[in-house]
Amino acid sequence: MREVGIDARIADGEMALVDEFFSLPAKARAEELEAAILDPEVDLVLCGTGGWNAIDVLRHLDWNRLEGHEKPIVGYSDISVLTTAFHARLGWRTYYGPNLASIANDEDPQFTLGSLLAALAGDVQTLRSTATMTESGAGPGRPSKKLDDPGMRVVATGVAEGAVFGGNLGTLFLMQGTPFWPDFSGDVILFIEEDALAKEYTLIEALRRVESLLMQPGLVGHVKGLVLGRFQEDAGVSQDNLAEGLRRIESLRGCPLVTGAPFGHTNPVVTLPIGGQARVDAPDATSVPRITVSS
């Protein structure tokens, strides 16, 4: 990371307090996050990894104290909690992108780091597929599995523009009905991905979570396009079945739908600016769609 101008400082967590859920107590994590945000020498909060319990940090944060101290918060998977909450509660631009562990596991992180820097700079990015991808989050000592990138696929044609919102489907499901759910006044392009925790039921879970997401206050009637990230191999998702399932969702009728975009639980990934702007151009089902995002 230093090679691209990012000087990392690791938060001073007391490892003796790590619990059976592989994390510090919620209050300790909230204090670390607040300290990083309020530290004038810190320009970027890059989360170390995802996990399962970012949501229990929210009630321990002093939101009034944090207001006016905007910092880019970057991460994916469970970090959807933070990227959503800080955008909804404080209006901050947050970033659905890599975490430190996924960068470390990436055999060639230049694509990922380049996109991260472009997003932070506010540049317009055009999403593009890569020839290969690897499973992210494999963990130390476990070799990455290299796979062919299936590429982006147009499921339903159309052109749409709107605000960028999204993240991990399972995590966004936890945020519904909380005080940390955004309320968009304009059009939205939804960027979502799902992990493989449900194994052979991943496709079913993903589709019903999409249905639920589209019913949430703040999104009803505002979603004008949907872009799905890549699935892990263990998810066993058939691209044809995925396409058919998406086409059956009535509230997405007339919206451009694209699958296989370069984000999710695979490497490399693009960084998506939550609250930024996106445009989806998918004029026909046989051409590569053009998707742009900017802060």
Structure notes:
This protein has 295 residues and is α/β, with parallel strands linked by helices. It has 2 domains: 2-105, Murein tetrapeptidase LD-carboxypeptidase, N-terminal domain (Rossmann fold, 3-Layer(aba) Sandwich); 123-294, Glucose Oxidase, domain 1, CATH 3.50.30.60. It has 8 helices and 15 strands. The protein has helices at residues 26-38, 63-66, 80-90, 100-105, 110-121, 169-175, 202-213, 239-247, and strands spanning 45-46, 73-75, 94-96, 125-126, 132-135, 146-148, 153-156, 158-168, 188-193, 223-230, 257-264, 266-267, 272-274, 277-282, 290-294. The strands form 3 sheets. The chain has an 8-stranded mixed beta sheet. Strands 1-2-3-13 form a 4-stranded mixed beta sheet. A hairpin with a 7-residue loop joins strand 14 (277-282) and strand 15. Helix 3 packs across helix 6 (169-175) and helix 6 (169-175) crosses helix 7 (202-213).
State mean pLDDT (0 to 100 scale).
Answer: 90
Helix content: 25-40%
Total individual domains? 2
* Structural category: alpha/beta
Count of discrete alpha- or pi-helical segments spanning 4 or more residues: 8
Instruction: Enumerate the spans where pLDDT stays under 50 for 5 or more consecutive residues.
Output: 137-141
What is the radius of gyration?
18 Å
| CATH evolutionary superfamily of the largest domain | LD-carboxypeptidase A C-terminal domain-like
Q: Secondary-structure element sequence?
A: HEHEHEHHEEEEEHEHEHEEEEE
Largest sheet: 8 strands, mixed
Number of strands: 15
Q: Strand portion, in percent?
A: 15-25%
For the record, give the distance between the C-alpha atoms at the N and C termini, rounded to a whole number.
Answer: 22 Å
| CATH architectural category of the largest domain | 3-Layer(bba) Sandwich
Q: Order of strands across the biggest sheet?
A: 4-15-14-8-9-10-11-7
**Name of the level-1 CATH class of the largest domain:** Alpha Beta
What sort of overall outline do the alpha carbons produce when their principal axes are compared?
A: globular
From the 3D structure, determine the CATH topology of the largest domain. Answer: Glucose Oxidase, domain 1
